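Long-time lurker, first post.

We've been arguing in lab meeting about whether zinc ion would sit comfortably in this protein at all. Half the group thinks yes, half thinks no, and nobody has a model to point at. So I'm putting the question to the forum: if I give you the sequence and the SMILES, can you give me back a predicted structure of the complex? Inputs are below. Any interpretation is welcome too.
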Amino acid sequence: MKTMSVTIDIEDWYHVPAVCSSSFSKYKDTEDFFSKWNGKYDYLTEPTMQTLDLLDELDIHATFFIVAEVVNRYPGLVKAIGTKGHEIACHGYNHMCYINARTRRPIHSREFFLRQMELAKKTLERETSQHIIGFRAPAAYVTGWMIDVIESLGFKYDSSVSSNSLYNKTDSKLKGVGRMPYFPEKGGIEPGPPRGLLEIPWPYYEIGPIRIPSAGGPFLRFLGARFILEGIKQSLRSGSSLLYFHPLDISHEIFPSEFSWRRPFYWLVKGRIVEDRIRWLLSKLDVEYVTMSEQAKRWTRMLCDFADVP
Ligand SMILES: [Zn+2]
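Top reply:
Settle the argument with this. Predicted structure of the protein with zinc ion, as tokens:
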């Protein structure tokens, strides 16, 4: 049977790159944001609880990629996710982007990235008593040197790479990257020989030479469930696939509008309609739902057998 993972990125509205922690953000980082912001900031707790209820209803154990500082700013929330039996994985410490969005060149040192990811991993492990082995780069900006660093910290898989015709957030051309999990080469993102870390790339919908991202997130809101479902079905031909969304995608609240002039339509479709889309598309799949770590374990074993690694 084909395997499928549901993945959820735990971050709040101010973690998005337009607001905090990127080469084009208003605030340098979340510390800077909290030193200046006086309004309500928690738009995350309520839709995360909604997400946990939805997963209970669907009887799915998901993987939560969590911005580690959420442990400190939303007491009890990460623990609540862990006690439901979901896998806890890492989505950075404060959702900082480590490369320039335009040039893909580093804007922070390798050493700084290493220290922050070490702190993120420890923070999540202390809170949930789970061994954290999964990583997703904040805003999916990822490079080979970042992969090397997280491997050195004991992470076993990354799931940030999306090969598609609309955007590329890596420093590689992704020539050899498709929808199947693979071992990235050292220092790069292109496929290489077996190593201690597996990349689980995102699904896409292929029409001729065009690849349209269909992992979920904003594309689930913009393009609808039918399209995402078709992309996931295509990807499942290789054996497995994944869906991702944010609790913010199913939130009923209106987020602070200070930044909406930059992306006026970004949050136009969200809330109940998106929750129903998730429910509908997952009901259409005849798959075994597994966590990402389980998916990584199975693929690692299979690819190593295939490469005849002792
Ligand atoms: Zn994110």
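For your lab meeting: The chain has ten helices and ten strands. The pocket of zinc ion is lined by residues 9, 11, 91, 95, 138-139 (CB under 6 Å). Whichever side wins, do check it experimentally.
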